[in-house]
Write a structure and sequence with these properties.
Helix content is 87%, strand content 0%. With 187 residues, the chain is mainly alpha-helical.
Length: 187
């Protein structure tokens, strides 16, 4: 009988785990996934796509808040989904920046629009937070997710600025060495 109980517990745990995994949605739609896949080795294009997709999620956030046709429950769900999708996409953007930097890619040109987007994303998230601050109930529903997203964007902005400064220095020296080597080869 003990084996039957253990088997039953294992089945219940498996069912709960798989149900939790099923609820986890991909923040990107199939067309977006294809675009990302097609730009796998091109940092500028890939990062630009992630910024574009993050902007779309912030637009969805705004639309959910202003859509008079939605019930309160639908607004809350769409707001939550847009915030979660934004956070997930922004995390992917961060991971891609880190991966390309670790590979030694020159990200100077790609990082400038990323830094601008970080500033834009932070402003939009803060505006959203300001719009719900007068409703403690509503603010409580999104506080954790919103604070997490804001923290990610703020940290990302700091990291991206630092990486850009490091890359400016690194590639400046590589360029200088290249010119010195060119001169030696011509002699």
């Amino acid at each position: 009988m003990t084996k039957i109980k253990l088997l039953a517990v294992a089945i219940v745990l498996l069912a709960v785990t798989s149900a939790a995994q099923e609820r986890r949605r991909d923040p990107l739609n199939p067309q977006e996934v294809d675009k990302i896949r097609d730009s796998a080795m091109e940092p500028e294009i890939r990062l630009k796509l992630y910024m574009e997709f993050a902007r779309v999620r912030l637009e969805k956030l705004q639309q959910a808040r202003t859509n008079a046709k939605l019930s309160a429950t639908e607004k809350d769900q769409q707001t939550h989904d847009a915030l979660q999708d934004f956070a997930d996409i922004y995390d992917e953007l961060q991971e891609n920046v880190d991966t390309f930097a670790d590979r030694g890619n020159d990200l100077r040109k790609a990082l400038k629009p990323v830094i601008e987007a970080d500033t834009e994303f932070g402003a939009k998230l803060r505006a959203f937070r300001s719009s719900i601050v007068n409703s403690p109930e509503e603010a409580g529903k999104f506080e954790f997710l919103l604070n997490t997203a804001l923290s990610s964007v703020d940290d990302g902005l700091k990291d991206h600025r630092q990486l850009l400064a490091e890359q400016e220095e690194t590639f400046k020296h590589k360029k200088d060495k290249g010119h010195k080597n060119d001169g030696k080869q011509q002699e």
